[in-house]
Structure formats: structure tokens, C-alpha cells
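2024-03-11 09:14:02 DEBUG pipeline.ingest accepted 1 chain
2024-03-11 09:14:02 DEBUG pipeline.ingest length=272
2024-03-11 09:14:03 DEBUG pipeline.predict start
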Amino acid sequence: MKITYRILFLFLVISQFLSCIKSKEENVIKKIAIKKATDKSEVNLINSKIDNFSFPVDSTLKVKILEPETFHNDEVDPNLDRKIWFGLFKIKDNYTLAETKVTIKHAHDAIIDESEDEQTGWNISVATKDTCVVLIEKLAYLNNRDISSIRLPESIYPGDNFKFSFEGIEYVLSATGDKKGSDWIEVSNYKLYLTSKVNGKEITDLLVAQKSFDDQMIKIIFAGDIDGDSKLDLIIDTSCHYNLSRPTLYFSKTAEKGKIIKPMGVFSYVGC
């Protein structure tokens, strides 16, 4: 009987040991997979498995946005050149919004294509590419005009609060989460908020939520009035991975009643 118990106990110890090894191996595999991922859908799949919560959710953002550059085959719908587009252009420190012709053509993908003759990628081009910040599909409230803007810190870290005024309205950008390190700050459980007053009542809207980051941080690309209502709009890179870019468009005009701002569109693509 004692021998039987000893054998059973030994079996349980070995099983737990092997289970621990397997768990550690799976974590290592996940990390390696992210670093080696070169496909947008692959990166998104890995992120969705690792992070149980993120905001905003790409699938809920219906406004199409693009950037003038060359991308992998699965990152661009070539039929989008049939839409009417407005470009947000930066000339020195000034911004303008203007209707522009967008051309999408096959191009050499330096990462995927094995020879110079192959052209599996897509190139998005406009007449003034070098000054184009983002392309936004035509919406009823977009028109050709100069855009008022404000310079904001590129990143807001957990514990930071940045107060500013835009078009006579007071705002606060703030962030929560965990951070550690000095030369390189590692952030987790991150949430970025925008606070302002609506009809005299203070409102705080969630802009971004990410569980963890891999050599990346949330970055504010643009802040100003794109939709023409004299209130703050934003373009934020909401990516949590160093090889993934995710410029995300936020408009104040479309915010629900009692809210400040609403995420409207996103364009996700990988760097290599």
C-alpha cells in the first residue's frame, strides 16, 4: 500500500513539473511569435490571445482612413481608390484639409517579394505625399479649409496629467496604469483619458486601453479641429507592438450625447 501511495505521489509531482515546463514554453513561443510576425492579421491574432481587453476595437470603427505609403497585399483594399478622399496636410506648422485624388497601384514589396520584378504590395499615393498626415474618406461635414491645431505631448504616461485649452475649451489628458524603469519605461494596464465639460458637467472619455506593450507606447499624432465643430479631434497611434502601426481617428462631432469624443476610423499595418 505504501509503495502504491509513493508511486502515485511521484506521478503527481512529475505531472506538475511537466505542466510548468509546458506553460513556460508556451509563453516563450508567444513572445517569439510576436517578434517574428510580419503579417497584420497574425499580429492582431497574437495580440487578441495575449490581451483580454483593448480599446478601441478595430472592427467597430467604420470610417476608412489611409496613409500614402507602400503596404503588404492584405493591408489595403485596392477598390478604395473609387472613394472620394480628403487629405490632412501639414505645411510647416500649419494644417489644411483638402479633397485629393488617391491612386492605389501594385508595387514592389521589399519585405515579401523575392525579386525586383514581383509586385505583390500596394502603393497609396497622392499628389502631395510628403505633407500628407492621413487620408480620410469623404464625410458630409468635411470640406476644404485651414485646420486649427494644438501641439500636445507625444505620449502621456501613467500618473501624468496634461491640461490645455483649445478653441476656448479646457481639456485634460490623463493616464492610469503601471510603469517601471528609468531609461526605458515599461508600461502595462494602460488607459488614456480625455476630460472636459459638456453643458457644465465634467465628462471623462476613455481614448485608449492596452493591457501590455512590446517596445511601443501610445503616441498622439495630431490634435486639432478636423470635423469643423471648433472642438478637439485626435489622431492617435494606438498600437501596442513595435512592428505594428495603428493610426486611429477620433471626432468630437460624432460623440454621443453627454460625451466628448468618439473613435471613428483606424488603419492597421505592420512595418516589416
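2024-03-11 09:14:41 DEBUG pipeline.report The chain has a mean pLDDT of 84.
2024-03-11 09:14:41 DEBUG pipeline.predict end
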